[in-house]
Write a structure and sequence with these properties.
261 residues; alpha/beta; seven-stranded mixed β-sheet; 7 strands
């Protein structure tokens, strides 16, 4: 890989860690079940990250199928290509923007995007672009967390809600999850299906390293949502719960599927 900046390395480690979480594995199982890929199909994975999901799909459409992954980050595409070469799978990776996909109309049988829409300023335009490159009768699937459903068991509900709402609102489309069904409906997609997966975190140490709750609190404090004292006390109380073994955090993720008429 040409670029190994610390932020990219940290994000790759996050993605690799996430794949080991049982609820994430359950979501990927549900996604595979809903798509029901067949031999010979052409698949587009938008926001492909390290390419591991696409590499899992490639054998299902082999030998005549085609698997293409796109991601906005050049460094991530380099990582995906490296991993694919090591696995010797017939997959392609391109740097591309979801709003202007470099493919002709009706190129793919399947277009999917996972953990992408919460980062989008223009989700309607993004879905329309996914529809454009999908053939008539083809399948479209989007999976996204909904930060409006992020829950943390904490004795101070008022401060907790301020932090949770801030975390949702500082993302371009933080509540994307519960909006996906309406988005698909408005776009005229048919055979709509919705599945929900609850991602839970019970391990306080895992939360500190994996989800970086301190960064969320610090960002809320810097934005003036909570005071320095409130941030410190809130974190101390959360640490006490974690040390006592009663830490709990959860977020709903939604998977929405539809067909292009």
């Amino acid at each position: 890989m040409q670029s190994r900046d610390p932020a990219l390395i940290e994000f790759i480690e996050f993605l690799d860690g996430a794949r080991l979480v049982s609820s994430v594995q359950e979501q990927k199982r549900i996604t595979a079940e809903m798509l029901a890929l067949q031999s010979g199909e052409k698949v587009l994975d938008i926001g492909c990250g390290t390419g591991d999901d696409l590499c899992d799909m490639a054998p299902l459409v082999a030998p005549a199928g085609r698997c293409v992954g796109v991601d906005l980050k050049e460094g991530m595409i380099e990582e995906a290509r490296t991993r694919a070469r090591q696995k010797r799978l017939p997959v392609e990776f391109l740097q591309a923007d979801i709003y202007t996909l470099p493919f002709a109309d009706q190129t793919f049988d399947v277009a999917r995007a996972e953990r992408v829409f919460e980062h989008l300023q223009r989700p309607v335009q993004a879905l329309q672009e996914m529809i454009r490159v999908t053939r008539s009768g083809g399948r479209i699937l989007v999976a996204s967390p909904d930060m409006d459903t992020n829950l943390i068991d904490h004795p101070n509900r008022q401060i907790t809600r301020k932090i949770q709402h801030f975390e949702c609102d500082r993302r371009p489309n933080g509540s994307a999850g519960h909006k996906l069904y309406g988005l698909f409906w408005d776009a005229g997609l048919t055979d709509l299906q919705v599945r929900a997966v609850v991602h839970t975190t019970l391990d306080y140490k895992e939360m500190l390293s994996f989800l970086d709750i301190r960064e969320r609190v610090e960002a809320a404090q810097k934005a003036g949502v909570i005071t320095i004292d409130e941030a410190q006390i809130w974190l101390e109380q959360l640490a006490q719960a974690g040390q006592a073994g009663r830490y709990f955090m959860s977020t709903n993720h939604y998977v929405v599927y539809g067909r292009k008429p």
